[in-house]
Amino acid sequence: MAEKNVGGRDRLARALLAVLLTVVAISTLRKGKSKTGLLALVGALGFGFNATTCFCGLNQALGIDTTDG
C-alpha cells in the first residue's frame, strides 16, 4: 500500500467535498442532467477515496504531504 500523504484538515476538507459532491450528483441526476451528475459523482468518489485511504496520487506526484508526522 502507498504511503499516507493526506491528513488533518486536508482529509476533513476532502471528506466534506465528497459529501457535497454526492448531494450535487443526486440532485442533478434527478433533474435529468446526466453529464453534470456523473462528473459530480466521479469527483465525490475521488475525494471519498482520498479521505478514506489518506492517500492522493496528485499529492504524491507533486511531493505534497499534509499528514502530521
Overall morphology: elongated
Helix content: over 70%
Q: In total, how many domains does the architecture comprise?
A: 1
How large is the count of helical segments? 3
Largest sheet: none
Work out the radius of gyration. Answer: 14 Å
Keywords:
69 residues, 3 helices, mainly alpha, single chain, elongated
Topology:
Blueprint: H1 8-30, H2 34-53, H3 57-62
Domain Inner membrane protein YgaP-like transmembrane: 3-66
Pfam family, one: YgaP-like_TM
Protein name: Inner membrane protein YgaP-like transmembrane domain-containing protein
Question: How would you describe the overall organization of this protein?
Answer:
- Keywords: Membrane, Transmembrane, Transmembrane helix.
- With 69 residues, the protein is an all-alpha fold.
- The protein has one domain.
- The protein is built from 3 helices and no strands.
- Helix 1 runs antiparallel to helix 2.
- The longest helix is centred in the N-terminal third of the chain and has 23 residues.
Summarize the structure in short.
This protein has 69 residues and is mainly alpha-helical. It has helices at residues 8-30, 34-53, 57-62. The mean pLDDT is 96.
